[in-house]
Amino acid sequence: MALFKDISLTDKDFFRAVVLYGRNVASYKFALAESLISVASEGKDYVLLQYLAVPFSEALCRHLDIQDKQTTNLSSPFLDKLRAFNRGEISVQEKIDSTVRLGFRYVIDAFHIVGSGDVPVSFYHDERKSSQPAIRLTDELMNMSEEAESKDLLRENDSRWRMVETAWAYNTPKRLITLDCDYRLESFFAIDSDKRRHSVTNVRHALNGYQRGKCFYCTREILLEDWILLEQRGEVDHFFPHVLWRNGHIGVDLDQAWNLVLACNKCNGSGEKRDSCPDILYVEDLYKRNEYLIRSHHPLRESIILRSGKTAQGRLAFLQNCYNTAKISLGGPTWKTEKPI
To answer: How many alpha carbons lie under 13 Å from residue 333 in its C-beta half-sphere?
Structure first.
């Protein structure tokens, strides 16, 4: 298999890189990502910190109600203020003032950093040293916020946020956790130390960013809104058909993240595809998609490593064995779709 091919990256890809691959010690980056799209969708390009503090603090307060641990640090005066607001102990204005004073201290500088440096696209310029502290949104962000996919970016951001805060709540890396999938409910869930099941996030929203908002098979753009035209709607699909597991041909759980992809309705609903072995070229794509998920850190990383191999070479061999079993068991030609020109 030829393991590498070049791709052209878009502004949305760089925004996804910030959300999906940027390292975090607190969840402020997710709150800022949500806030940026929110204010940009209103057509505002010059955003005072007092104004930005409203959606930023609202997002964090919402998540504090879901999961109190929003940082790896032992304490946070800023988050304590938001907790006090959630308890009704301070006013809205006090919450906003605390956010302007404490909430943006590091996140505005660090937002664009992925790995060892900034992504090549800036989504805002820092103007906090002006007489009225603010940020100025770039054309790249303003244009991106007008596109239909902007709502999917918000969902991907929130989904990533849910996975990270779940990992923090379970005190990883001291106690690594994995996410299992309830395919019928299209939901990832975690099991706590008391063997209780907790829903974490929607499967479609968790996977979409790692496929760059495209159908896994034909690479056409997909959207996750339920009202979207059927052919363009993104749906969860078993890469290796579920019938292999149901009929006992394969001894691994096919209802897990490593085997789930998003496909447009046209590909997923293809009669030719149903219960057919996917073409070997797609196995390479699945391997690369799974490696992207592993690079993203926290629960999906652990889920895929646990079920498909501790090393990249082991995961290659695992997928090759699954393909061999599928081709022998399902018989007939492998399935492949035509990609748009």
So the answer is: 5
